[in-house]
Amino acid sequence: MDFSGMLLRFIILLSLVRGCLTIEADKGILASDGDVVDCTDVKKQLAFDNPLLKNHKFQELPSQLPTFIRSTKRSKWQTLEAHISVAKCPKGTIPARRYSSTSNQTASVSASSDSVHEHAVGIAKVAPKMYGAKATFSVWKPTVEKADELSISQIWITSGKYTTNDVNSIEVGWQSDTYNATGCYNLQCSGFIQTSSSIVIGGTITPLSAVDGNQYEITVSVWRDQKHGNWWLSLGSDHTLVGYWPAELFASLSHAEEVQWRGH
Description:
- The protein is mostly beta strands.
- It has one domain (24-54, 77-102, 118-263).
- It is 0% helix and 30% strand.
- The chain has no helices and 16 strands.
- Strands 4, 8, 11, 13, 14 and 15 form a 6-stranded mixed sheet that branches. Strands 1-2-3-6 form a 4-stranded antiparallel sheet, with no helix packed on it.
- It starts with 23 loop residues before the first strand and ends with a strand.
- It holds the Pfam family Neprosin_AP.
């Protein structure tokens, strides 16, 4: 398979809140949101099945943190921080969210001819090159009514052009229909390498904002390790490291040509 033109995606999914303590559950454990996860050896995760990573050397930590990630500037409005679900896996393992055998891991959906696509996009193109970006999202629970509907907030880091079929992208954010109808995301695809032994990728984000109530937000940061070329992801105001996209996955993302902050 030719991976050079693929769109590499990572989405933190927003699902229903189910508070629960971490306990043993059918050889797995329950995460803080009640989902069952398996503590998988960090070097045996699905990412290493990717033929492009056959000779990849695992990177436990980034060589350094970028300057922008150290900023403590917050929204001018009074907000509180939301958090993604966690699990207590041993060091050297990662919590892989368990999916049922009937889950749609790779699927596609065609929008109807009368569908309406509404979105807002902020775009940054800073010459000559960009090596990282940060986004803080307000977290809500929008309602979707049809299988081909979704609501999403994301940061999108890209290089290349659609006209030349060499677009490479990294996408991070939250959305509301858990991708039941579209795509292959998170740890279900062999690409992203998780390093955190606690963050549950694809887990629930809580608490949620309420009209005339508390407003919650979550911060994501993505940057390129200049020494190794891998693109790292961190979450929250404390910049908890989640993992990275290996440099070998990309044909044209030695730097970003464009960063988009998108809402659908």
